[in-house]
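Input chain follows. Return structure tokens only.
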Amino acid sequence: MNIRRLERQETLDALHLVWDVFAQDVAPLYTPEGVASFQDFIRYPNIERKMQTEGLALFGAFEGSQLLGVGGILPTGHIALLFVRREYQHRGIGKAILLEMCSFAVQTYRVSKFTVNASPGAVDAYRHMGMHDTAPEQNAGGMRYIPMEMWAASVPLKKKRGKGVYIAAGVGAACLVLAVVAGAAISRELRYVAENGVDEYMQDGSQWGDDGSSIEDWYDEFYGGYGQAEDGQEESGIDAIPEYVDEDCGYDVTEDNYIYTADNTSSTTIQFEVYYPQVDGLDAEVQEKVNTALQDCALDSVDKLYLSPSDEMKEKVLGEEYPVLASFVEYKVTYQSRSLLSVVFQDYSYEGSENDYHVALRCVNVNLQDGTLYEVKDIVNLDDSFVGQWAQVMRDEADDDTFLSELSAEDMKDVLGGDTKDGVYTPEFFVDEDGLEIGLSFRYPADSQDDRGYAWVTAPFDFDEIGPFASDSGFWALVQ
């Protein structure tokens, strides 16, 4: 199945499908006045005018050349249309169209919330897609509907420019909690948990599709995992990093995890699912250092939010009506040799408030001979020459010549040296098959004009390119 934005010449066929499905499934619930109002809305001249002025984006789901379903979204994030041929309903096609439209709208229109006026018969389906009711049933002009909404952080983005770029979807999402299934994070609706309880939520989550499918089936079918290639698209994010693994490195890498979900004893939702690698077969003292570093990096959010919260975090949770503490961490071993292990972690977290959603990159680069950990400032000379080259590669990766323009050259040196500028910039690097990447994980203040929507960006260098900037650190002997 292929889902894409419709061309102008495909509009008429799409509207015929919309009307046919509406007449069968929705019209019986409307008064004649309501049916006439909808029919007027989907008249070809009206829709064409909206499309020409970018007031409406239409999407279609195709099997070969056959159009199976149609969706339409406004620049405000309002879902204006979502219809699937009756014979193809209950197969998840509507969910797939919705995700495609929402991903498009986050990146094109920069919306933070999606809304829909759901017909009574479609409410359950929209709930399963992540929408939640915002008001009782309404009646306007003979059209019955239930207002619903969904925040943008529940939508995984598919379009990311390169392997060294990860776009943060809708930072600042409300009413959501991370539900972790099938090795990936899917945002779920916080108020449902608060009102119905974690047990019911978990039970519902195992068989939640309107076609009886599981949430795992939905995730695999309609996203396939963060950053994975789909329909010929290039991989991006940590999945796109080309790993180097020495099969004869002399030690084993296994997986461990920290998984915890609080019971339903208060309005606070707590959910952690953190995965991280561990090594076995090294010198005992070095092995302990390495494994501790890997575990600590993976559990950074868990420690900050739950295991060792600050007084500020405690006060933040107490001040929230529906507090949420959640973290899902995935990882990738990008470089594994006898002497060096490089691991990247990607953390999706809610940090006390339902309005405080973040995606962060963290890296561990560790010497397997003595347990030494390396940071950016350890491996390159942070002089004008390097910073100028690095900044240009970062801008090339972001495809934006003004990216990081808020920082002077001296500021960049400070940031790469470990000055986070009040937590906005965190320097990271990792080694992979092609060389190494040096970049930043971002956490801009709300409504910052400097925020381009990226969670992290890294600049790639092959070993020849980085050579002139290399420090005299023993790190470089480990990758020769």
